[in-house]
């Protein structure tokens, strides 16, 4: 910072040029695109769908509205746009609205430049301070967004007609930056009119005093499609202000959902006890969300957020950790039985549609079993499992569940070579090359036995797997 120009004359000699914020973002976006880099990190699954549309919008200099259900990274993308601003920006010292030293807007900055000329002091603002955000709520007022007369300044002796009595709102304070409005349909229509006046007409009337505010902004907004059409609406002139409307979506496949889960889920470790959620259980959790998004018994208007998958993988890991702490195991590996913890993380995130009261648990249980069976058919080798079923038909049995120690389940695999072989193949499916521990083997054995039960090749009674007594 000490190397940045400190006065207006030094700024001119440095060669710095003033460009509109949309041109600044466009320039930096072009540099990233040419370098083959994404516009921002941390957003997965939009590479071929949303990102090309966003790149087009920024290159065209459009204001943007993101339209999508909850949990589709709309806010994350909006906030990540900050990274496309220059790291530092010069402003007239003391300016509340980031006045351009070459083109001051506020009365304070205009008077300061007129009085001191080339000696006008310059401050530098980091790009993190060039972003403003407002959640559209019914109580949002023009004073919040645009500004209001400050009675304290009036009490100090200034006239109401003096522009210096104005206390600027969020929008002017984001001048030369990015301003975002979340859930914009919830903004009352009269407030939308006031916002339009600032962004289009470049003036606003406050307490009967009209001032000119030629603001330089990139306006970004988000909306839920259901709210956008039913609960609220955007007035036509403001809707016309957005150059691009970009539709977001949920992950299109389980692999993308798993990548997001791994990125967002908090690691669980207590003391020396670590937790691992095997790749096949991660796929079960991701498939559960995918099936929920296609289920007629789940309200699709409210959506099935990716946060559901993240919460579910965390709670399954937490259940495994709790089991490990109680059993004294140094390493806890999540099992199929840990999926029983899903309702606590799921019930508040999806809305079940059922004609009968009290069926929510049954519907969630059905979705879990369907996801488990789907993944079992994807990852298990049926040739190896035929010999496992044969061993059970010869009299073998196995207990599983939260109260069964890893050593006991690993012993079952040792007594049935075909089961041990299938478990090893399942564990190796995530690319691991190390020797699996008892907890890994136990988790794989329980998953395979549950898959055989769900595919109607084994019976299950009180957590005990046995051979089927009747033909299929």
Question: Main β-sheet: number of strands, strand sense, barrel status?
Answer: 5 strands, parallel
Write out the CATH superfamily name of the largest domain: P-loop containing nucleotide triphosphate hydrolases
Estimate nothing, just give the exact number of structural domains.
Answer: 2
Name the shape in a single word.
elongated
Describe the structure.
By secondary structure, the protein is an alpha/beta fold. The protein folds into 2 domains: 8-247, P-loop containing nucleotide triphosphate hydrolases (Rossmann fold, 3-Layer(aba) Sandwich), CATH 3.40.50; 254-467, no CATH class. Helices cover 45% and strands 15% of the residues. A hairpin with a 2-residue loop joins β12 (269-270) and β13 (273-276). α13 packs antiparallel against α14 and α19 crosses α20 (438-454). The mean pLDDT is 87.
Task: Indicate the topology.
Blueprint: H1 8-14, H2 21-34, H3 50-60, E1 64-67, H4 74-80, E2 88-92, H5 107-116, E3 122-126, E4 131-135, H6 142-145, E5 147-149, H7 151-155, E6 166-168, H8 170-173, E7 177-182, H9 189-201, E8 203-206, E9 209-212, E10 217-223, H10 225-231, H11 236-241, E11 244-247, H12 254-264, E12 269-270, E13 273-276, H13 279-293, H14 306-327, E14 331-333, H15 342-346, H16 360-379, H17 382-393, E15 398-399, H18 406-415, H19 417-427, H20 438-454, E16 458-461, E17 464-467
């Amino acid at each position: 910072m000490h190397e940045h120009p400190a006065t207006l004359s030094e700024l001119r000699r440095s060669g710095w040029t003033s460009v509109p914020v949309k041109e600044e973002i466009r320039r930096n976006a072009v540099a990233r695109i040419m370098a083959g880099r994404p516009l921002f990190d941390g957003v997965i699954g939009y590479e071929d769908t949303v990102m090309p549309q966003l790149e087009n919008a920024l290159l065209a200099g459009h204001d943007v509205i993101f339209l999508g259900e909850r949990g589709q990274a709309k806010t994350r993308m909006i906030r990540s746009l900050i990274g496309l601003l220059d790291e530092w920006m010069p402003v007239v010292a003391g300016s509340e609205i980031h006045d351009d030293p070459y083109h001051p807007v506020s009365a304070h900055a205009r008077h300061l430049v007129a009085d001191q000329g080339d000696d006008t002091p310059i401050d530098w603002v980091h790009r993190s301070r060039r972003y403003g955000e407002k959640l559209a709520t019914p109580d949002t007022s023009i004073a919040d967004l645009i500004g209001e007369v400050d009675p304290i300044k009036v009490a100090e002796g200034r006239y109401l007609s003096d522009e210096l009595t104005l206390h600027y709102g969020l929008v002017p304070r984001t001048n030369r930056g990015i301003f975002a409005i979340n859930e914009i349909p919830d903004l009352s229509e009269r407030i939308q009119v006031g916002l339009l006046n600032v962004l289009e007409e470049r003036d606003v009337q406050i307490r009967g005093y009209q001032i000119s505010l030629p603001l330089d902004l990139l306006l970004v907004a988000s909306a839920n499609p259901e709210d956008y059409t039913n609960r609220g609406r955007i007035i036509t002139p403001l809707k016309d202000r957005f150059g691009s409307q970009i539709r977001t979506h949920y992950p299109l496949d389980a692999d993308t959902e798993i990548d997001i889960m791994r990125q967002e889920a908090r690691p669980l470790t207590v003391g020396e006890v670590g937790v691992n959620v095997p790749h096949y259980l991660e796929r079960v959790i991701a498939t559960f969300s995918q099936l929920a998004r296609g289920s007629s018994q789940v309200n699709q208007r409210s959506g099935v957020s990716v946060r559901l998958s993240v919460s579910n993988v965390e709670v399954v890991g937490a259940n495994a950790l709790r089991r490990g702490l109680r059993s004294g195991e140094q390493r806890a590996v999540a099992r199929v039985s840990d999926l029983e913890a899903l309702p606590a993380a799921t019930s508040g995130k999806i809305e079940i549609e059922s004609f009968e009261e009290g069926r929510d648990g049954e519907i969630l249980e059905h979705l879990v079993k369907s996801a488990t069976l789907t993944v079992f058919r994807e990852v298990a080798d049926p040739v190896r499992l035929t010999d496992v079923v044969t061993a059970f038909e010869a009299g073998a049995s196995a207990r599983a569940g939260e109260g069964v120690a890893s050593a006991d389940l690993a012993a079952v695999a040792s007594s049935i070579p075909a089961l041990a072989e299938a478990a090893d193949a399942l564990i190796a499916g995530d690319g691991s090359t190390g020797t699996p521990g008892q907890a890994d083997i136990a988790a794989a054995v329980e998953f395979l036995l549950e898959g055989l039960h769900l595919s109607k090749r084994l019976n299950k009674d009180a957590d005990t797997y046995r051979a089927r007594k009747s033909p299929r």
